[in-house]
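Thought: the user wants the 3D structure for the chain below. I'll pass the sequence to the structure tool as-is, report back what it returns, then summarize two notable features.
Action: structure_tool
Action Input:
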Amino acid sequence: MTTTSIQDRVDGPFADAREVHAQAVQRLDHGDIRDAAEKAWCATKRATDALILARAGDEPGTTARTTDELDDLADRVAGAGSLQGRYYSRLSQLHGACFYDRRCNRHTERRIRETAQYISDAESLAGQ
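Observation:
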């Protein structure tokens, strides 16, 4: 019987986050800002889930659980508060305003591109 460590389970979502973010940048470069915004949001969610898995031992799954767990993490872990604000920004602006409401603004491209730094920061907080 093979056991999978938390570290092994964390690697997958972080790799997925990086791959989806690369797809977001590709879509942005091809002029599809809405799809790029949604992919950047997905990358943010996957990186946040991986961080929570690394710190709490369980992957949250739903956005509501991810949000609650990140809020709790921000109270306990130095540096997690920085991610918290960026997470909410992406949830609201990339996922909600740009993708669903078709209200992309001059900050949308920056948020999409800066998602790479969000993923790196989440990896650092996870001990990657």
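Final Answer: Structure generated. The domain at 6-126 is CATH 1.20.120.330 (Four Helix Bundle (Hemerythrin (Met), subunit A)). The helical segments are 6-29, 33-56, 63-76, 80-100, 108-126.
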